[in-house]
């Protein structure tokens, strides 16, 4: 892009973004935003860099996103960093990605600005990675700030299966028979055992890179969410893209399945 175009954007975008923020109705701000940080590898290929560079660029864009969420009053953010399917990648590629994720999470924790909460099948991760995620959660447990769910080793089907397993184990410990449980089981019983139990379901789910599918992200929780698909690869996702997503959400009439 020509230098003059970059300069023009630097001048015009802040004014445009400020106008968008001013026009966002406070009562229409999403309480919980889920983000699928997609397109890191394709971004790297597009700029002639290796895959690791793409993931590092994506990791660097997490902190700005959390700042944008704080700015408008979002209370919960869920970031999908690694799916259960991603765990099947070649070991050297997977280890490199896990190292970048560990570093990004620890950097967020060190700031003590956000309360971090790992969500996912931590038992499927290397022990060292799981321990570092748990340590980040413990280090920020008393932080009174934005709640950030770090979805690593996460899959929606796996989460539901884990919730049902936990529910059955809990009731078995109480001596409840399967017949007794079947008589009273409802959706709330399962919701109480999800990775995000106690949290509001996502109002808005954003996916970058132009892909228009959930891919298993928050399958249970997103039943009534609004979705926004952005063409930008995750490392190129800007504040203006985020504000456009929130504006689109605020302009929609939510029907909650009706």
Account of the 3D structure:
By secondary structure, the chain is of the alpha/beta class. The chain has a single domain (29-250), classed as 3-Layer(aba) Sandwich (Undecaprenyl pyrophosphate synthetase), CATH 3.40.1180.10. The protein is 49% helix and 13% strand. Helix 3 packs parallel to helix 5. It starts with a helix and ends in a 7-residue tail after the last helix.
Core attributes:
single chain, 258 residues, alpha/beta, Undecaprenyl pyrophosphate synthetase
Provide the number of structural domains.
1
Shape: globular
Main beta sheet:
6 strands, parallel
Segments where pLDDT lies below 50 for 5+ residues?
A: none
- Can you count the beta strands? 6
CATH architecture group name? 3-Layer(aba) Sandwich
Strand content: 5-15%
**What would you give as the CATH superfamily?**
Decaprenyl diphosphate synthase-like
How do the strands line up in the largest sheet? 3-4-2-1-5-6
Q: What is the rounded Rg? A: 20 Å
CATH-defined topology: Undecaprenyl pyrophosphate synthetase
The pLDDT mean sits at 93
What share of residues is helical?
40-55%
**Secondary structural class:** alpha/beta
Total count of helical runs of at least 4 residues: 10
Order of helices and strands: HEHHHEHEHEHHHEEH
What is the C-level CATH assignment?
Alpha Beta
N-end to C-end Cα span: 46 Å
